[in-house]
Amino acid sequence: MNTPLTTPFRHGLALLLTASLLGGCSRGPDVTALLQPQSGGDTTVHENSRQAFSQPAANLVSADRATFFVGNAFFNSPWVVAPASASARDGLGPLFNARSCDACHNNDGRGQPPLPGERPVSLVFQFSVSGAGSGDPAGPEPTYGGNLNPFAIDGVSAEGTVRIDHRELTGAFADGEAYTLLEPSYVFEQLGYGPFAPSTEISPRVAPAVIGSGLLEQVPEAQILEWVDAEDRDGNGISGRANHVVNLTTQQKMLGRFGWKANQPDIAHQTAAAFNGEMGMATSLRPNQSCMPAQTACNAAPTGGSPEISDAIFDKIVQYQRTLAVPARRNLDSPAVKTGARRFVEAGCSGCHRPELKTDAKTVLPELANQTFHPFTDLLLHAMGPELADDRPDGEATGSEWRTPPLWGLGLQHLVNGHTRLLHDGRARDASEAILWHGGEGATARDAYKSMSKRDRAALLAFLDSL
After folding, report:
1. Are strands 253-255 and 357-358 parallel, antiparallel or unpaired?
2. Which of 221, 212, 215 is CA-nearest to residue 368?
3. pLDDT per residue as tens digits for the range 105-121
4. Phi, psi at residue 384, to the nearest 5°?
5. Which residues pair with 171 in a beta bridge?
6. What is the rounded distance in angstroms from the CA atom of residue 296 to the CA atom of residue 157?
């Protein structure tokens, strides 16, 4: 069964240079802040291999290193179907996208869209249906739940797969050089449980890199909220907003800082959501199976215990992500990189992709305390215009808003992950295309990039490649 989307999905903004690779202000930080070699402060490692994103923080003490490698083993090894003799690792499914964390975040890096004929793994399609009244919160799609699971254990029907079609868009830089962009649209096929509800909202989201997560988690909330400017009072064209989401432990709202729309407050919530939605596994934070009422075989399948992932194992997986290092910058003495840093500021990129943050003095791990680091994000939401919208609200985030993603590690992505796909749905084939997809708050900077000389465009891309 084929279910084409009623309108083509036009979300191009969020992966790597989402929310706004480029901002819109003419002023920015001193360029020296953009050329710091220690991207992760004292946690930075000097590693340029395929394992550049998989190293423990350089300042991690011996006891925490042991925990790191245990967490690494659970992050990379596949989970199995219950019941199994390896009871600590069973409970996969019944419906799932991947068997391991690494399957989506390969080598702790970025995912990509599936090749033609493949089922999606690291590109996840999230579902919701808006409430009946204005302002009502969105709920899961009534038959398929929170996202599409293209795989299932024996005896359970998978939810389906997707075909990605592309429309080629053409344009030109101010100097006449032509470019093309690929606008994706999605056709859902082989749906195992019937059609989607008519009002289903769908958002494709590629798995992001997980390096430096511990540093981002420990930035004081006040530092992030200082940059909120919902009404654009300073007139710079940038209107960052915060997403506030529910802490499942306290049931209190707190600042969201992880996920493409900042819909998770910390690493534990992000990890529990991924286990539940993409691997069909229960944790203490999310103790229920993700099977919907109509999925009878899914509901009747054996589980791997309650919870399926013990708190001890879950905590080690969280700790592993928290202590992943960020690789050091490269080629900072290059004249092109230095020129590119100036163009990055002049175009307004640093208005959203802020080059410098600092962690709190009191943190969950002493190695993360008082770290000045350089992720190139403000962790806020930015409206990127209708051409980039997924039209799916997420908490307080609107259908056109996305969180500014960190840019660190950008230049090593091809080595670590074997591709250069960017934006939240992976539509951009490289950093240049990611910039060209920017709209809304990123339109001024996008236009500045289009107006640059070929030499300056190359310099800006060289700067991004140094990250």
Report:
1. unpaired
2. 215
3. 999 999 999 999 999 99
4. -110, 15
5. 179
6. 10
